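Researcher: Structure for this, please.
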Amino acid sequence: MTDQPAPAPAAPDARPRGQWGLVFGRLMRKPAAIFGLAILLLFIAWALFPALFSPQDAYAQSLVRRLRPPSFLDRGVDGYLLGTDHLGRDILSRIIHGARVTLLVSFFAVLIASVVGIWAGLLAGFVGGTTDAVILRLIDMQLAFPVVLLVIALVAVLGPSVTNLIILMGLSAWPRFARIVRGSVLSVRGLEYVDAARSIGAGRSRILVHHILPNILSAIIVYASFELARMVLLEATLSFLGLGVQPPTPTWGGMINDGKNYLSISWAASLFPGIAIALIVLALNLLGDELRDALDPQLSHD
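Model: Predicted structure, token format:
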């Protein structure tokens, strides 16, 4: 018997990375995305483990050290890096604890808005006809009211609890998700893969969930990142007006409201919570911009 040739060594696994791995790789090549992600992860860590990062008790009061400047300035108190508020509480610790309220309310508000808006947009774009007309009229009716005034009115009536705040903020934002999703569905519902699914007898629900939704998911994710930034601002606005989460729970908008009466004495009490709001909004917008580019298959990526 003739000798058989030795089998060639197995080739290394050359399977391409998944789509989301490619997207993450593109993001990690963008300095703006890295900066935004780092800021976002820092605030998430604060929200999840506030006691781990807080240098002081966020609720401890001391009128002896009230309205002190940051510790690196004259009259600053050691251990109170960003100074103290009108009740002598540590500003940095309250900012860290306030991240939990802001991110919790904003995230779940966006979650409610996306769930309602996605299904409304899918039905409007795919079914069309009377269903589309009714949903569009509902969208137009709600968008006719200024969002902030609408939420303020409803919170004032129902009361400023965390649950009410999340539900009302979420329901105020669903029309924007619905319009984004409806437009995306209209652009893909006549494509070949949808016709092919119909031809093999796939039902409407299966086509929407398994064929259309995955192909418009990137647009939804990008818009959700921008909407999350808008919800952070809305929550801060409501807290500033006294309609958000009530004291003594720290919120960034509430801290700005508390400090506004003492700006001539202590600028730190309002400035640093405002910087926290600006940073998280900037981080989310940077991530949204870079996500849009990374998820767009028509763009060339280096």
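Researcher: Any notable elements?
Model: Confidence is low (pLDDT under 50) at residues 1-17. Residues 86 and 261 are 9 Å apart (CA to CA).
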